[in-house]
Write a structure and sequence with these properties.
Layout (H helix, E strand, L loop, with lengths): L20 H8 L8 H10 L5 H23 L2 H25 L8 H29 L5 H12 L1 H10 L4
Helix pairs in contact: 3-4, 3-6, 4-5, 4-6
Length: about 170
Amino acid sequence: MAQTRTAPARPGRTRSAPANDDDEDAAAAPAFKALTREEAQALRQKDPPLNPWRVVAVQLGVGVVVALLAALATGRQEIGWSLLYGAITVVLPGALMARGMTSPLSRMSPGVGAVSFMLWEMVKIAVSVAMLMLAPRLVPHLSWLALLAGLVLCMKVYWIALLWRGTKKS
């Protein structure tokens, strides 16, 4: 059986509780400072929130342009329609979520906002899945590859939105 040795207590120090790293972090962290109304307005002007409707509009624009270009390049309308349907499978649920998240109800409190976000995210997923299931019935001569390309291209618009937020003018 192994023995453990403990160091003798130093004078003036009790051995009741070991030093806690969280206490040291809290002491090193700067104190929280509430912003004044003017400071909050200046912060909002400096870093405005990204409008979700702008993202949805750009997604729709990308989808329409790519669908037209694909139809013209291949000479096959079914490719263009499939690509456009893939884009709409991203845009329509995104628009529903943007509508739900920008409603006054979702901004009542942080708790209501979190529940609203989860609810609208579930609606978005359900509508996307339903649209994908209906695709063969709604799009004649459906090209799944073109539909997938439309989906992926429009989902990548979210990354462009993040880049918009990352590049600020000084």
